Amino acid sequence: KEISAEIVIIGAGGAGLTAAIEALENGASSVALIEKMDITGGNTRLSGGEYAAPNNWLQAGEGIEDSKEQYFNDIYEGGYERGNKELIQVIVDNALESAEWLKDDVGVVYRDKMSWYGGHKVARTLWPVGDGPVYVDTLEEKARSLGAEIYFTTTANELIQDENGRVTGVVATYKDGATYTFKADKGVIMTTGGFSANIEMREAVNTMWPSLDANVPNTNSPAITGDGIVMAQAIGADVVDMDAIQLYPVNNPATGNYYYIDYARLNSTALLVNKEGKRFVNEKGTRDVISLATLEQTDKMVYEIIDAAVVAEQRLYEDYQAEIDKCLKDGVLAIGTLEEVCEHFGVPVEEVKATIAHYNEMVDAGTDEDFGRTDNFNKIGDGPYFMFSSVVSVHHTMGGVKIDADARVLDKDGNPIEGLYAAGEVTGGIHGGNRLGSVAVCDTVVFGRVAAQSALAQK
Ligand code: ADP
Does residue 310 fall inside a structural domain? Predict the structure, then answer.
């Protein structure tokens, strides 16, 4: 089967759907999206859909002062000063405008409260109603309404080039084994995501985490296997930062995936304790810091404790009842008095009580002498408490194909490969050694749009 479109996009996740909308809104006559799974969204669907935007409308209401420079510094420093400054600047310059586009044009509905992720100096993260699933559904609906065609259960496996090396299409395999050839008049945009779910690839490049072995779970969609990186490398594309693998610190041991109820820690006040019932880290630290500390604890297993007031304030029952039920059934969550929850996990309750008392005294005194926590540095109050067990997972791969500020894929000599664009987690260079929470969605939208603009501008 042969399909022709002005623009062909590989991967209908966050970046792919955004690129499709942008292309169609700016005069593309047709856009075809190739999607491996039977559902859109990839890792974006599994996320909270959160988007860091400096100087956003909620910050104004809350009197929070922010700036592009501050956002730039947070991304750059959070990435261990390894990120490409030119690419970071593109994100910083377009973050707010693209957030407003999502809200006003695409129809994403944001909550009236922001999140505050580790590594950001101020709260600047917009959080959509319904998290990743509703966010992606909104993008998909918009893309379809503009005429995007999505080819599901179709796996792209090869880029087609003409005699001049220009990328003119994609060879893909439909689930029944049939070959689909996609011809792209203007360009191919690769938005296939990272490679956290490809254990071989992960093992081959990992130097960052000595304790990361093949048994460490991942938070990703099973489709996120680095296909775009492999396809691009096969035609000479360069890669960058492939060793930079991000672990996510707080995950459900039963699934390897994160907990929505962990929003209590991210957005409010929760404690992390180890098997001995002691705090071991700043609960608001970056993902790397918490992950590394967790891997050093007994059995690499830790516990999050949330008090009743935060459970109510964060609407955990209202928004995440299904997850709560499942976690109780799986035994990874206990709810009750401190005695009850600690007994469930075999953690010494007297130690936990002493930990909480000491922590609360530090809150009263105003300084976390032990771990330097400042954000949501509030007391732990009364129960019934939530306590849930947690392990580290592989979450995100910072490395990927090299692009320039126009989202053009670069070869090993630093020259753009004509006709090939990339955006989102498949690309490397932006987040350097570590990606801050809620900058990935911002990246997919900003660079998804840039890629679409560049492809359209091509003759
Ligand atoms: P990003 O956040 O960068 O947009 P996502 O994980 O949200 O990345 O989306 C990546 C999408 O690409 C997923 O929907 C995934 O199923 C799809 N995908 C990955 N590899 C292929 C492939 N070889 N062919 C088609 N689709 C793919």
Answer: yes
